[in-house]
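# step 3/5: fold
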Amino acid sequence: MKLNHVNLTVTDVKAAQTFLQTYFGLTVAGERGDSFAALLDDDGSVLTLMKGSQVSYPKTFHIGFVQESEEKVNEIHRRLKNDGFTVAPPKRAHGWTFYVAAPGGFTVEVLA
């Protein structure tokens, strides 16, 4: 069995879409103005973004992007930090990992 898609409600579809394309290489499969976007990863999984007026995920909720190496995690961390995102340094937990608050109201984990 393969997971087909995950839907996130976000406050700003375009900002979340740009973030996911820029830092994680997702590609656009479809859009409906500023209210909906469907993004694909390298394996063909779909991440849909739907606009909501407010977003309230539980504190521990996040989506994760596994990287092929610790250096790739460090590279993404550097890019995010250089682009003005507030990110704590990667640390050793269940892998080499860090979290970032994404535009639109959800959290992303980057790990190797």
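# step 4/5: annotate
The radius of gyration is 14 Å.
# step 5/5: archive (pending)
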